Amino acid sequence: MKMQRLEWLRKNLVHPARMALAAALALLGARALGLLEVYWAPIAALIVIQSNSNAMLATSWLLLAGTALGVCGGALLATFVGPSVLVFAFGVLGMGLLSATLRLNRRANHFAAVALIIVLLGGPASLAWHRAFHRAVEFSVGIVIALIFSALWPEQEAGI
Predict the structure, then answer these.
(1) What residues have CB less than 8 Å from 119, skipping those under 6 apart?
(2) Is 92 helix (H, G, I), strand (E, B) or coil?
(3) pLDDT 10s digit of each residue in the chain, 160 long?
């Protein structure tokens, strides 16, 4: 009976504990850097932590590439065209085409589109490059902290 409880705890507590600790460390890292919207760092960390450990490095690369594409695209569109529903729609479509051209997968395209939306629609066009820089740094902090954390505390594959 005691072994069953221990097994239950291991299966059901370890992953949430890893998630909570990785997110908290990412939040602390973003705060230590004085970033504006620190919640993006733990969001990125949680996305990386949820990935299969075998694919974590590849996933992180895709998140970084997609985020970089999206923040640049969003800042360019906000600065030179301005936010509108049409610009928004064509921007998301453009991120998909650019991701395909660069042979990035759908996950990278997803992050490119999300980053584009945040930068394009997140505030005044005059601050688009400022927003783009901060979102890229905030996401990068979360990704890097999650990678380091996962290297120090790898998740044990469990039969789920």
Answers:
(1) 70, 71, 73, 74, 75, 78, 128, 131, 132, 135
(2) helix
(3) 777 877 887 778 888 898 999 999 999 999 999 998 999 999 999 988 876 666 777 778 888 999 999 999 999 999 999 999 999 999 999 999 999 999 998 888 998 999 999 999 998 999 999 999 999 999 999 999 998 988 888 877 654 4
* 70 contacts 113 by C-beta, under 8 angstroms: yes
d(Cα 124, Cα 13) in Å, to the nearest integer?
43
Task: Kindly provide the b/e burial profile for residues 54-88, where b requires at least 16 CB atoms within 10 angstroms of the residue's own CB.
Answer: eebeebbebbbbbbbbbbbbbbbbbbeeebeeebb
Phi, psi of 110 (to 5 degrees): -60, -45
* 133 vs 127: CA distance, rounded Å: 10
DSSP 53: G
- Residue pair 128/115 in contact by the 8 Å Cβ criterion: no
The CA distance from 76 to 95, in Å, is 12
